[in-house]
Design brief:
The protein is mostly helical and 220 residues long. The chain is 77% helix and 0% strand. It is globular.
Length: 220
């Protein structure tokens, strides 16, 4: 029993260590503000440690963007709690915030004397394309995940409508997300009927040939 307890304690310590260093890397290495930290958090939580899959991470990002406050700290708090409980939450928040705050105090105190130097301004401009590409790659990954569940036609229609609402009408993301949550409950039946249309059935993921001579579901 003592060996098992000791082994469990060691595993917990390793988990807390991983949580701390994962979010410390996110806090120190990401550049460009809260949204720019999303690809870094995904790399740690999904790719490196496999604490969750892409679909779960996409849900965290969507809900986090609908709530007030910086997205990076909200993701750190939730993922830390999901993985390591209350202690994991505290460690994730410390890893995300404290090292970055200390580093910022030291660095900003130094850079204040060189604020007008061309290299200091160019450093920030040079990072913007890198952040943009990372965000674009992650956006495409989210779209492919959505298409697996909704089909490409429905996903494309949703994406076009959301882009128009956000870009042209300047509607707040929280309002858009609230509408999507409502659609998830109300529109599921409409999507099911839409998929039963013979001409459009091939455009959805549920287009499967009948087994053993059984008629397609849409023809019942």
């Amino acid at each position: 029993m003592r060996v098992r307890k000791r082994g469990a304690s060691i595993n917990k310590l390793r988990l807390y260590r991983d949580i701390f260093f994962a979010f410390t890397r996110c806090g120190l290495l990401c550049w460009g503000g809260g949204p720019a930290s999303i690809p870094f958090v995904r790399r740690e939580a999904v790719a490196r440690f496999a604490w969750m899959d892409d679909e779960t991470f996409a849900e965290i990002v969507a809900v986090g963007n609908a709530l007030p406050g910086p997205i990076n700290t909200k993701m750190a708090g939730y993922i830390g709690y999901k993985v390591g409980g209350v202690m994991g939450l505290a460690i994730a928040m410390v890893g995300m915030v404290i090292p970055t705050a200390i580093f910022m105090i030291v660095l900003l105190t130094t850079l204040t004397h060189f604020a007008e130097h061309p290299s200091a301004a160019g450093m920030g401009r040079a990072m913007l394309p890198v952040v943009g590409v990372m965000m674009a790659v992650m956006a495409w990954q989210f779209i492919t995940i959505a298409a697996k569940g909704l089909g490409w036609l429905v996903t494309a229609a949703h994406s076009a409508i959301i882009f128009a609402l956000f870009w042209f009408l300047n509607i707040h993301p929280a309002i858009i997300l609230a509408g999507l949550f409502a659609w998830a409950f109300i529109g599921e039946g409409l999507i099911a009927k839409f998929r039963r249309i013979p001409f459009l059935r091939k455009l959805t993921k549920n287009d499967k040939p009948p087994k053993n001579g059984e008629p397609p579901k849409g023809d019942l």
